[in-house]
Design a protein that fits this description.
homotetramer; 264 residues; alpha+beta; Urate Oxidase; nine-stranded antiparallel β-sheet; 9 strands
């Protein structure tokens, strides 16, 4: 196909900047699944380097043909070496300006490590939690943090009706909070681990395994119980405005999962 | 631990039925990731057997300790041999009754096959689409259908600024609609495939490959363009009350994806 | 870019057929992740329609530039309505001929359903197993079948050292066999379910839940025990020439998995 | 159930250490999917902190009942702060000793970041590659490194038969090498990116997008071509004893993938 000379002279038209006549605005447009090394705040060690999967979006007014995707990455280049959580609002402001947008959105997920001691032997090891930030800036800045906490659930019904034993399993508690006053991921994890049959450990010696086995048996909980216990704790916490709780239990007696959720 | 005689005599207490004093109601509780063979309506062949991944939930009033998970599966046993889409409201009614709930929710995802002819050679083959039903019954019955449609997107900017060629890639258009009047999955797929650079085929001979290559080059589209073209079509369709459109493009020049979404 | 007239006259060159001078043969070339409706043999109902994810490959001699991918799909079109397992060798012969190859390979994975009765209440429900066929035809025809069986494992150490209870969890046993004489998927599943703490059910009433809880507690097994019990059964089976066993246990007390494997 | 006094006095029996009479040895037993922060060698910055998913196994002689899973984590605790690749053999020796095993196996996968400059604008950004180590120590130490490299493939057939354009897509080249003399991940990535239609960039301005679009169009390659080009380069490299190459192309015109592989 022939091309007019303007391409030869390398003055490129800005297609994205073209006026769009279809009168259709777009809620969110941007980039998804960018992996980037970032730094997050750590309650005990000031900061922790980790690797995030990042989504960045803006809204697009009806009169623009498209957004400029490369600018999202330019903003990440600017900020990824600083503590992300301290700069989220600034990052979103920067994105709004660069993209001439009314609203900017950021979604982060990253593994976060905490040193956890075995309950009896006290041997310390690293355990990872999948953590999340979700921030948006339109007229106001809104921010949510989330974490997936693996826990043990032991079935109250199974314990009650059986002469011995009780089925138990690994369950995942996903908790998201929208706060006014800063809440550490560590605090959210702690509240969650206090709301299950027993919490999970990276390393257990025999004395520890006896402890967690008996603790779980002494604290039978349905997925419903975890949602309730955790929602009571979160409702009492003055720093937290809204929360989402989801519990999914990988039932050891079924090939499907038990599930419960509550938002407030 | 010792057990009182009641266990020996096999009169089991109904733990789930116990009164809960915590005054915390639960939004959704139930079963997730049940795989089940089902039958769905097929525009051209009346019905199509497929395999669904199913989530079933009810709400739980604050005064009940737990729900009875096994009853969800009992309802599936009753209905899975009938055409699912014709019975969704009845299934949810049945679940509400069995679980003594105020609201019931069903989520289905399943592969759905359509015979598609190559554009020039006209050779017919099966192509699969991931499809979705989402139904709820509280006071009123609400129903959404969804489908993920793989398409080709060819970048308008890349075409415009390059002397030859243009980067293109596989993209996934996810479209969900809430309708008043029945909409076939086939209709939704057709509207989507008319809103991209070129649609995708299971089998292409050389004459067909020439056709799709040139068609994509003749129809460059950003993810934003697909959202707009499809939203215009869906807005015009009197059967459709609400829709969600998401387009994710697996950019051939990046290791991350371009994304756009719109709901109405 | 200019094109010589031959394109206008639509006599397309066969690029794949071009001679390659690099003297590099290729082990496997073909298509991956094709979803196709197929029919498999069912021990109790003669046949079962299901949906397979299919990989098809051939070897490529050094002197050919490429293989003709569309022909793999043409072969599927021919055979997908017949009982696949009865036609595997014929399918591979057909592929070898169509692609002028010395070797042809087929990999199938599909969900397979079995009606399973609860152990005490005897209520029957469908339960799904991920199943696999792997066939190759070079000079001789070789065939493997595989299945992933979800089971309960209860930890012998946890039981022994704890005053009450024992941690247990969902575990997945993956077993592959290469046989001389036909082995039903049902047989392979049965042998596997006889080699664990307790097997898993789609639906359990309270009487059943008591049964599986106590059965698991009465049969504590490490992943190592499952590998050993199953390998002894498979070794004794005169129909089976080789096997691979893998057991992965989603530990309810850890966020990582216990694993064991054996091949023979 | 009653327990004898030894449990009360907390002298726990070592169940794993019990003698097994079944005469079945186990090929591999250990832990899977442990996430752990580690440090890997970086060609340009000496070392790079990253997060690995780790599998650790040993063989189990027929006369032992089970292995001691917690010891694998204890070894990770010891070594994760040192440069992993420098200590792999020592780590495996340590595991063999701790577990009294004849063979030890380690599998690591981790994201690895390289600063990459856009081809024309020269803007530098981080791009991630999924990387792998696989090490074993029985009588001798064996070591493989691997990397998944996303690239652009442009179809030679599509280009040849079409009057304009050519379908292209993101493809993943997985390459594993077993070397005698150290090979940097960066070297392996560079060799791979030199063997495709065009390599992929984290950030491209318009001048760069024109460049990559035209470069891909000028270098049409089938998955077969990539396997051949890369295998020629690896065969010539005196440091490399064996290699596995797999190329999977997410075809922009199909919903399935093209695939080719070669091992030597």
């Amino acid at each position: 196909m022939r091309k007019t000379n303007i391409y030869k002279t390398k003055i490129f038209p800005d297609i994205q900047n073209q006026t769009d006549s279809r009168k259709v605005s777009i809620d969110k447009v941007g980039v998804k699944n960018i992996k980037y090394p970032i730094i997050v705040a750590d309650k005990h060690n000031k900061c922790q380097p980790t690797i995030a999967e990042i989504n960045l979006f803006v809204d697009l007014p009806h009169h623009y043909r498209g957004t400029h995707m490369s600018r999202f990455v330019e903003v990440l280049n600017q900020y990824h070496k600083e503590n992300f959580i301290d700069n989220l609002e600034e990052i979103l402001k920067e994105i709004k300006n660069r993209l001439k947008a009314d609203a900017a959105y950021l979604e982060l997920s990253f593994p976060y490590f905490i040193i956890k001691k075995a309950p009896v032997s006290k041997i310390a090891s690293s355990v990872n939690y999948d953590c999340y930030f979700r921030a948006s800036l339109k007229d106001v800045f809104e921010f949510w943090i989330g974490v997936k906490v693996p826990v043990t659930t032991l079935c109250p019904c199974s314990k009650e009706i059986s002469d011995y034993g009780a089925h138990n399993q690994r369950s995942i508690v996903s908790v998201w909070v929208h706060y006014t006053e800063f809440v550490w991921l560590e605090d959210l994890i702690e509240l969650t681990e206090q709301s299950c049959s027993c919490d999970i450990y990276p390393l257990l010696k025999r004395v520890d395994e006896k402890y967690v086995t008996e603790k779980a048996y002494d604290n039978p909980m349905f997925v419903e119980d975890i949602v309730r216990e955790l929602s009571i704790k979160l409702s009492k916490d003055s720093r937290i405005m809204h929360y989402d709780i989801e519990v999914e239990s990988y039932e050891s007696i079924h090939n499907h999962n038990a599930f419960a959720k509550k938002s407030e």
